[in-house]
């Protein structure tokens, strides 16, 4: 019985290392995507938290761009998380806040700018504390 178990384990190990490196590589890539997505969601939350803490008029576009920028720098998973979170937030806010389609369009522009790797400081208002 032990001999057969050893043979089976050895066969699996040899098969995995010889025939199927692509499967394990795809699993590792999937894991990296998930880690990037979680990290990207964390980046988006940090930008949101900072925006709420700063409570600075006209700074929302900066924080949108910064959160998306930080998340997208993590990789495809982070960019995906940023897009999903940004779209969900804007869809919800456009229905609830009543700030209008123009504000939503400008927010989405800042989101896309950050995700494409654009400098978030483009949207930074004068007088915003350097802490942010």
UniProtKB/TrEMBL annotation:
<dbReference type="GO" id="GO:0034364">
    <property type="term" value="C:high-density lipoprotein particle"/>
</dbReference>
<dbReference type="Pfam" id="PF00277">
    <property type="entry name" value="SAA"/>
</dbReference>
<comment type="similarity">
    <text>Belongs to the SAA family.</text>
</comment>
<keyword id="KW-0011">Acute phase</keyword>
<protein>
    <recommendedName>
        <fullName>Serum amyloid A protein</fullName>
    </recommendedName>
</protein>
<keyword id="KW-0345">HDL</keyword>
<dbReference type="InterPro" id="IPR000096">
    <property type="entry name" value="Serum_amyloid_A"/>
</dbReference>
<dbReference type="InterPro" id="IPR052464">
    <property type="entry name" value="Synovial_Prolif_Regulator"/>
</dbReference>
<dbReference type="GO" id="GO:0006953">
    <property type="term" value="P:acute-phase response"/>
</dbReference>
<feature type="signal peptide">
    <location>
        <begin position="1"/>
        <end position="18"/>
    </location>
</feature>
<comment type="function">
    <text>Major acute phase reactant. Apolipoprotein of the HDL complex.</text>
</comment>
<keyword id="KW-0732">Signal</keyword>
<feature type="region of interest" description="Disordered">
    <location>
        <begin position="94"/>
        <end position="132"/>
    </location>
</feature>
